[in-house]
Amino acid sequence: MDQNYAGQIAVLLNTRNQLVKNYDAKDILGARARFLFEVRDDQVVGCVEVKKVQWYQAEVNHLTVHEEYCRRGIAQALLTSATARAIRDRARILQCTIRDNNKESTGLFVKNGFLRTALFLYPDTGNNVGVYQKVISPPEAAALSVATGQ
């Protein structure tokens, strides 16, 4: 990732999301290993951050697609890549938070097997936020049978 792409990612995040903190190219470059992005004709058209937050848990942040490129499969491809990254990083659970009124994002994550596990008010924005989780590394059969006594 270079300065140009980092700047484009920052602009995309800031314009397409309701963020409390705005990003700049320096922020993105500082976390470059966590960002996946899609480029078309030298323009960043989608991005997502994948961050390991616990030994067993990774988080998807700010899955964002440029408005001119919506409904072209970019969000699905980024989520698939984010899931693969989390699995590669040996996470067991993948989690995200989504504003309760963001029906498109909610639909994408639910379609991909995420379940809402909590809903809370984020006081800094006044938005209700859902926590969505998906198990990406199910228990092995032998371990499961020991745990269940079968």
Write a concise synopsis of the structure shown.
With 150 residues, this protein is an alpha+beta fold. It is built from 5 helices and 6 strands, in the order H-H-E-E-E-H-E-H-E-E-H.
Can you characterise this structure?
The chain has 150 residues and is an alpha+beta fold. It has five helices and six strands; from the N terminus they run H-H-E-E-E-H-E-H-E-E-H. It has helices spanning 3-16, 25-30, 74-88, 103-111, 141-148, and strands at 35-40, 43-54, 57-65, 93-99, 115-122, 127-135.
List keywords for this structure.
single chain; 150 residues; alpha+beta; six-stranded mixed β-sheet
Draw up the topology in text.
Elements: H1 3-16, H2 25-30, E1 35-40, E2 43-54, E3 57-65, H3 74-88, E4 93-99, H4 103-111, E5 115-122, E6 127-135, H5 141-148
Parallel strand pairs: 3-4
Antiparallel strand pairs: 1-2, 2-3, 4-6, 5-6
Order of adjacent strands in the largest pleated sheet: 1-2-3-4-6-5
Radius of gyration: 17 Å
Structure annotation, total helices: 5
Q: Which residue ranges are poorly predicted, with pLDDT under 50 across at least 5 consecutive positions?
A: none
Give the N-to-C terminal Cα separation: 50 Å
Give the overall silhouette.
globular
Biggest sheet details: 6 strands, mixed
- By secondary-structure content and strand pairing, the structural class works out as alpha+beta
What is the mean predicted local confidence, pLDDT? 91
Helix and strand run: HHEEEHEHEEH
Beta content comes to: 25-35%
Helix content: 25-40%
Number of strands: 6
